[in-house]
Amino acid sequence: MSQNKGVAVESLWPTPKIQRSGATGPLLRQERAERTREQILHCAARIFAERGYQQTGIKDVADEVAMTKGAVYFHFPNKQALAIAVVDELYSRWPVTLEAVRGKGLSPLDTVIEMFNAATVAFLEDPIMQAGTRLQNERDAVDVELPPPYVDWTNLISMLMREAHQQGQLAQHVDPDVAARVAVAAFFGAQHISDNLNGRADFAERWREVRDTLFPALRARPSLATDPDRPVTRG
Ligand code: LUB
């Protein structure tokens, strides 16, 4: 827990949705199948995160989820399909997280920070995130094409930075698309270094440093003339 000090620990990470029908029969069976698929995916993520793509076999996944290989194959025809499903699952969550963060009514720049906070927690706690990252880092060794990394994140942060720009939140010299690329590079770079050197043990700390160094430099200084919080002083 102390690892996450200063980072929003409350999880904005969406919990996978399973449709609740309350019905019996085919719907219930479908629900159960969906839940099984999810369990397999999560166990696969844990193994991929731990061992990497090449060292993971369907048998390992089946053992981890305590099912037969046949049960795993019923949901995922091969290892490639599992890898793609993990990465797709990862990317499909960010818009949901953004919606949850939007619900807090923060400014665009603080929304950016909160999205990175959420990603930090996910890096530390979520096997889908840890596996997705590892698979993407090993993408040359993965014998199936994965979606390009970083693109969704860069677009998402660019959109928010442009909003920040429109609302006068960015310093004058700051180009919102450049700010997005720099922020994404700094965040994922810090993560990569922390992962390689310390197994992410210091990642929350490293992210706080990035955050507290980068964002004050991007932010417009409140104008002395218009800042409502400006202390009333003479002269
Ligand atoms: C990366 C994550 C986590 C790629 O968006 C992305 O591409 C990524 C989160 O969505 O890792 C790492 C090569």
Level-1 CATH class name of the domain at 80-218: Mainly Alpha
Distance between the termini: 48 Å
Q: Describe the biggest sheet?
A: none
Low-confidence region ranges:
1-9
Number of helices: 9
Strand elements, count: 0
Task: Please give the radius of gyration in angstroms.
Answer: 21 Å
CATH homologous superfamily identity of the domain at 80-218: Tetracycline Repressor, domain 2
| Mean pLDDT over all positions | 90
Shape: elongated
User: According to CATH, what is the topology of the domain at 80-218?
Assistant: Tetracycline Repressor, domain 2
Small molecules held by this entry = 4-(Hydroxymethyl)-2-propylfuran-3-carboxylic acid
H-E string: HHHHHHHHH
